[in-house]
Amino acid sequence: MLTEFDYKLFQFINTAAGQGGFMDLLMRFFAEQAVYLFVLALLIYGCTRSERNRLMVLETAIAACAAFGVSKMWSLLYFRDRPFIGHDVVQLIAHKATSSFPSNHATGVFVIAAVILLNRRPIGWVFFMLAVCVGFSRVWVGVHYPLDIIGGMVNGMLCAFIIHYAATRWSRVNRTLLSIVRFYERLEQRIHTRIRKNPRQLTK
């Protein structure tokens, strides 16, 4: 019953694709390139010399590893064909016939959006809405069913909440993460000091 509803919802969304207009271009952007906006955000936060921001990036890295680990486990235990394998679909992007559930794209963008939302509320909502657009676009372009997206969303957000809870409520975990960030900052400072003392090394 659930899979039948899932397929009908997929059809409702996917049949609107393939018209060659602005929506197809926008959905292809969200489906393929928008994920780099999330990566760019993490790089920017990581480059700012803020302990809070770097803790957030470290939280994201740990949560993402956990989420992708769970995703891999699910794909091994339950292989679900992509929509284009057993149905006639409007497929706007190429994709290998890997397991469809849960969506790795949805897992990735929602785990990042959730960690940012937990740490930076206003901008976090922006990334959450971007994540929703990415998930919707993956159905639009014909490579995922809606339940694949929901599965990835739940997986990513749950891992983000668990890691954030551990990082903020368990003092041992918090101290460990802080020590990692501070070790990185000491290493970074040493590199900057060496570069300032020997600027010619940059031109070699």
In words, what does this structure look like?
The protein is mostly helical and 204 residues long. Helices cover 76% and strands 0% of the residues. It contains nine helices and no strands. The chain has helices at 2-14, 22-32, 35-47, 51-77, 83-86, 104-119, 121-140, 146-169, 171-197. Helix 4 (51-77) packs antiparallel against helix 6 (104-119) and helix 4 (51-77) crosses helix 9. The longest helix has 27 residues, at 51-77. It is elongated.
Which helices and strands appear, and what pairs or packs with what?
Layout (H helix, E strand, L loop, with lengths): L1 H13 L7 H11 L2 H13 L3 H27 L5 H4 L17 H16 L1 H20 L5 H24 L1 H27 L7
Labels describing this entry:
single chain; 9 helices; 204 residues; mainly alpha
Quick structural gist:
The chain has 9 helices and no strands.
Our measurement of the CA-to-CA distance between the termini, rounded to an integer number of angstroms, reads 65 Å
Number of helices: 9
- Structural class of the helices, strands and pairings? mainly alpha
SSE pattern, N- to C-terminal? HHHHHHHHH
Using the CA coordinates, give the radius of gyration.
20 Å
Summarize the main sheet: none
Question: What portion of the residues fall into strands of 2 or more residues?
Answer: under 5%
Helix content: over 70%
Say how many strands there are: 0
Mean pLDDT: 90
Q: pLDDT under 50 segments (min length 5)? A: none
